[in-house]
Specification:
The relative contact order is 0.15. The two termini are 32 Å apart. β12 and β13 form a beta hairpin. It is globular and about 55 Å long. By secondary structure, the protein is α/β, with parallel strands linked by helices. The chain has 2 domains: 121 residues, 3-Layer(aba) Sandwich (Rossmann fold); 192 residues, Dihydrodipicolinate Reductase, domain 2, CATH 3.30.360.
């Protein structure tokens, strides 16, 4: 049994990780740490935890806690991950892993030194239709082209767009895209180039750079074009991935429908609801902690994703400068 403590009891973790751990026999939710005492008590009572607290240090000091799930505002992800690693806890931190390259390095080195299981909530690589798409691509010859659109309406929680707290939408959300693309292609990114505009959130006077067209080149010659931002309408499906691979095309529509062209004998597939892989992510995490075969995202993969993410934002801020994201350009990471 994996005894878990959750640090940060916001809406996302209450809708995903907490019920998914409750429904997975490998896990027991032991504790909730949340700065709002009323939320801590309510969530703790809902899940029948041993205790709830407003002090996260209590769960880090608890020898009965095996895993910490970090779902705080983004600027706390890296320092809490480092602190948790030093206590020997396994870690699931929600995206983003970090907000800067220096934080990425510090987290990577801390979890490597601790030897704990560490992963980041890049759940789309576990989505069932995405897993099927990747399996179909195993037979491809040569590089592929990918078009990834992730556009919806303006976020109504301005803290995530604030540079010092959430990091803005590239840091907060485009990291999902870079992880998914790297996993789907099966080769690390080598260059990233972003062009975009600026938008002022009505709830925050700071100017944030959120809308971008991003090009990514991969080590095997594959390329990806990303359209990412918040100029859309919430009623329109948020995500679409089109893959072009040697006279074959795969379209993953909003992680609910998979359309195949040129794959004889393979049928299209549609799910009853959108499935972005959050249930499967918890399953793979449990397997990894229990020492079972697992496809869990590794610390090295997570760090490579954050390098690509941070460099994409820098490219946007520097009017489209091409950025080197090869692993060998970052000695602390080394080759993949």
């Amino acid at each position: 049994m994996i005894r878990a403590a959750v640090i940060g009891a916001g809406g996302f973790v209450r809708a995903t990780h907490l019920p998914n751990m409750r429904d997975n026999p490998r896990f027991q939710v032991r504790a909730i740490a949340e700065v709002n005492p009323e939320t801590a008590r309510a969530v703790g009572e809902e899940y029948g935890v041993t205790y709830h607290t407003t002090d996260y240090r209590q769960v880090l000091a608890d020898p009965e806690v095996d895993l910490v799930v970090i779902t705080t505002p983004h600027h706390l992800h890296a320092p809490l991950s480092i602190e948790a690693a030093k206590t020997g806890k396994h870690i699931l931190v929600e995206k983003p892993m970090s907000m800067t390259l220096e934080e990425t390095r510090q987290v990577f080195e801390a979890v490597q030194a601790a030897g704990v299981v560490f992963t980041v909530g890049f759940n789309r690589r576990y989505a069932p239709l995405a897993v099927r798409a990747k399996a179909l691509l195993d037979s491809r010859r040569g590089p592929i082209m990918v078009n990834y659109r992730m556009v919806d309406s303006l976020w109504q929680h301005p803290w995530a767009l604030a540079p010092g707290v959430g990091g803005g939408r590239i840091i907060s959300e485009a990291c999902h895209i870079f992880d998914f693309l790297t996993w789907l292609v099966g080769a690390p990114p080598v260059r990233v180039h972003a062009e975009g505009g600026v938008l002022t959130h009505p709830g925050d006077p700071q100017v944030v750079q959120d809308n971008a067209a991003i090009l990514v080149k991969f080590a095997d010659g594959s390329i990806a074009a990303v359209c990412h931002g918040d100029l859309g309408n919430g009623a329109y499906p948020k995500e679409n991935v089109a893959v072009f691979a040697g006279e074959r095309t795969i379209v993953l529509d909003n992680f609910q429908r998979l359309e195949l062209y040129g794959y004889e004998g393979e049928a299209n597939q549609e799910l009853p609801t959108i499935d972005k892989g959050v249930v499967a992510e918890i399953e793979q995490l449990g397997r990894a902690i229990m020492g079972e075969p697992s496809t869990l995202l590794t610390p090295r993969e997570a760090a490579q994703t954050m390098i690509c993410t941070v460099r994409a934002l820098e490219s946007l801020q520097q009017e489209g400068q091409v950025m080197d994201v090869r692993a060998e350009a970052y000695p602390w990471l080394g080759g993949l």
